[in-house]
């Protein structure tokens, strides 16, 4: 049971790579029947579910490991960034570009802040709002992937959700920046 959360993280990363490849093929016009887009949607949804499950199982069964603390956040970043870049490659359109860029910028910036902080002994714990941000990002990106696949999905809803996710993403990025700045100021 201790290995299951890590296995789920590895599955998430593998599914994300397959989803990304499918979205690139869609963008290259290699999906005449829409099968690759369906695959990308379901690969993303399953990967997003593993994000919840691996953390829940690790806490529930006291299976938190060093590898898990490395794999989980990497898997999260790869999933979100892979979906954003994959959607751009598949032709998500210019209205998606700005919120997509904000999401990507924040994800890389916070990773850099964590690395700089860690080198100086400063930890940046995940905030409650950042967990909500991830959930909103996953729902927003799933809805973008579902455009055209889910008939009842109003066309403006996915883009609205992406903007909400982008705003939460920027907000939490600013919180991490301020938290890092305060933490570094306290260090000798």
Question: CATH homologous superfamily - what is it?
Answer: CDP-alcohol phosphotransferase transmembrane (TM) domain
Residues in helices, as a percent range? over 70%
- Spatial separation of the terminal alpha carbons: 42 Å
CATH architecture: Up-down Bundle
- Structurally, how many domains make up the residues? 1
**Which class in CATH terms?**
Mainly Alpha
Q: What share of residues are in beta strands?
A: under 5%
| pLDDT < 50 runs, ≥5 residues | none
Gyration radius over CA: 17 Å
What sequence of helices (H) and strands (E) makes up the elements? HHHHHH
Word description of this protein:
- It is built from six helices and no strands.
- With 188 residues, it is an all-alpha fold.
- The chain has a single domain (4-186), classed as Up-down Bundle (Four Helix Bundle (Hemerythrin (Met), subunit A)).
- The model has no long low-confidence stretch (mean pLDDT 94).
Short précis:
With 188 residues, this protein is mainly α. The protein has one domain (4-186): CDP-alcohol phosphotransferase transmembrane (TM) domain (Four Helix Bundle (Hemerythrin (Met), subunit A)), CATH 1.20.120. It has 6 helices and no strands.
């Amino acid at each position: 049971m201790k290995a299951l959360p890590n296995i789920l993280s590895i599955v998430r990363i593998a599914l994300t790579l397959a989803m990304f490849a499918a979205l690139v093929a869609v963008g290259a016009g290699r999906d005449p029947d829409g099968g690759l887009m369906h695959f990308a949607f379901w690969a993303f949804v399953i990967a997003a579910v593993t994000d919840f499950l691996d953390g829940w199982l690790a806490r529930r069964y006291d299976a938190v490991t060093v590898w898990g603390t490395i794999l989980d956040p990497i898997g999260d970043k790869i999933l979100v960034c892979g979906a954003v870049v994959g959607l751009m490659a598949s032709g998500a359109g210019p209205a998606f570009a700005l919120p997509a860029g904000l999401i990507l910028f924040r994800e890389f910036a916070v990773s850099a802040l964590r690395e700089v902080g860690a080198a100086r002994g400063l930890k940046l714990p995940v905030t409650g709002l950042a967990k909500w941000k991830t959930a909103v990002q996953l729902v927003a990106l799933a809805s973008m992937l579902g455009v055209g696949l889910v008939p009842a999905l109003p066309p403006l809803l996915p883009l609205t959700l992406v903007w909400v996710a982008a705003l939460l993403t920027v907000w939490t990025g600013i919180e991490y920046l301020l938290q890092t700045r305060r933490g570094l100021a306290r260090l000798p």
